[in-house]
């Protein structure tokens, strides 16, 4: 089954201090089942890598290597979106519009969500969206 994951999960693969068992479970799942992400993910990843460069966590060469790795993974960017639903989810769960976009996609696609963001995870549980956890898919 395909999975929605957010930028926090993806970044956990490349920044050792952000790695978690949940991020690694999502990586294993991706290898066998693929993932779907909102277009926003593309921008978030690139911005986080740029900030990582500025903070000397990675260099420009590493950024390009990471982007090349991500380009070949089975990650599909969803072009659809329901602005009204995203806004309603953001309001109902006190999320940023950005985080609500991940939740809306998981709801619309009827698939689990993987996130390291605790507020988004709480909102997913409240919306009855299954969450990928570290013990899943071993």
SSE layout and pairing:
Blueprint: E1 3-5, H1 7-12, H2 21-33, E2 35-38, H3 40-54, H4 60-71, E3 75-78, H5 83-93, H6 97-109, E4 113-114, H7 118-126
Parallel strand pairs: 1-2, 1-4, 2-3
Helix pairs in contact: 5-6
What's the short story on this structure?
The protein has helices at 7-12, 21-33, 40-54, 60-71, 83-93, 97-109, 118-126; strands spanning 3-5, 35-38, 75-78, 113-114. Helix content is 57%, strand content 9%.
Number of domains: 1
Q: How many beta-strand segments?
A: 4
Within CATH, the superfamily carries the name: 5'-nuclease
- Helix-strand pattern, N to C? EHHEHHEHHEH
Indicate the proportion of strand residues: 5-15%
Q: Strand order within the widest sheet?
A: 3-2-1-4
* Share of residues in helices: 55-70%
- State the separation between the terminal residues, measured CA to CA: 14 Å
What characteristic shape results from the CA principal axes?
A: globular
Average pLDDT, to the nearest integer? 93
Flag low-confidence runs. Answer: none
Q: Major β-sheet, in short?
A: 4 strands, parallel
Q: Which structural class do you get from the secondary structure elements? A: alpha/beta
CATH structural class:
Alpha Beta
Tally of individual helices: 7
Rg, alpha carbons: 14 Å
User: Could you name the CATH topology?
Assistant: Rossmann fold
Query: Would you identify the CATH architecture?
Result: 3-Layer(aba) Sandwich
